[in-house]
Write a structure and sequence with these properties.
With 297 residues, this protein is an alpha/beta fold. Helix content is 40%, strand content 17%. The chain is built from twelve helices and ten strands. Helix 3 packs antiparallel against helix 5.
Length: 297
């Protein structure tokens, strides 16, 4: 076959650039991302996929996306597949994002949750897609603003994310000063400290409340206990309807009776979980106390 005929028979590229990126390549990557993380990639994300993964091709010295797809489909490419997943996962977050949720949590802590904690009962909060940690640290500041002696109470925050890189950032708890724009001034004075020019660290009192772990939301969940509040915000929008429905249905039995699920402003609980939860605020859903008899261990 001549070079001209080979070029003519080659599959067209979806994105113009230094690497050929065919529809077949995109479909393979989309299938892996959906299988591994539940994220649905529409065709209009082809440019985003190309731009984020072209860096990986250059780092690996690969000549084409076809070669990259072949690598990440093998057992030897599992580490690179994790890097691919991290590159394609959106980690947009900020302190006190959607502040009405933290106002709601503060009210819960000032009420029933606070009374339970002071009575020696455990209180558990889960940041189910914590990204680089701003959400769980916001929750920790909210806890301490109501329960300043939380270190002496059984109050804990679990922070999980699929991306080990952002989990490590959250665990370190050091941020660019510009990222603290949403933190109230009095919280900033009490629970952060400057550690370098333009760099700010979270106080140990906050870190002591939080456990950072890696977790895939569509994989196995090792947690056995229930949670009084679960934050899973602006994640399900990347899932198809069926995956969203399964996710909400997995959260519902993990809520204590009276527990609250906080979701993103563009998200709505669908599927069977919609019958198990009731609206209790803007994109906040409570598990009714009457559901105790049907709750799973």
């Amino acid at each position: 076959m001549t070079a001209a005929l080979a070029l003519k028979s080659a599959a067209p590229t979806m994105v113009e650039g230094e690497f050929a990126f065919t529809e077949g390549d995109f479909r393979k990557i989309a299938a892996m991302l959906h299988g591994d993380a539940g994220i649905a990639l529409p065709d209009d994300k082809a440019t985003l996929v190309y731009s984020r993964l072209a860096k990986r091709l250059r780092a690996l010295g690969l000549a084409s996306f076809k070669d990259y797809c072949a690598l990440v489909a093998t057992r030897e490419g599992l580490d690179e597949r994790q890097k691919m997943l991290a590159a394609l996962t959106t980690n947009v977050t900020r302190f006190f994002r959607e502040p009405h949720h933290f106002d709601h949590l503060r009210q819960e802590l000032a009420g029933a949750l606070g009374r339970r904690a002071k009575a020696g009962e455990k209180v558990r909060i889960w940041s189910a897609a914590c990204s680089s940690g701003q959400e769980p640290y916001s929750a920790a500041m909210t806890v301490l603003s109501v329960l300043p002696d939380a270190a002496n109470l059984d109050v804990k925050i679990l922070a999980t994310d699929i991306d080990p890189n952002v989990v490590a950032e959250g665990r370190a708890g050091v941020y660019a000063e510009t990222l603290l724009a949403g933190v109230p001034d009095d919280y900033r004075r009490r629970w952060t400290r400057d550690v370098a020019p333009g760099r700010v660290a979270m106080d140990e009192a906050l870190k002591d409340l939080i456990s950072f772990k890696e977790l895939n939301l569509i994989g196995e969940w090792p947690m056995k206990g229930r949670f009084d509040a679960i934050f899973c915000r602006n994640v399900a929008i990347y899932f198809d309807d069926a995956t969203q429905s399964r996710l909400w249905s997995r959260f519902a039995p993990l809520l204590t009776p009276g527990g609250v699920l906080y979701i993103g402003h563009s998200e709505r609980v669908n599927g069977p979980a919609a019958a198990e939860l009731e609206t209790t605020g803007v994109t906040a859903y409570r598990k009714p106390v009457r559901a105790l008899a049907g709750a799973h261990p």
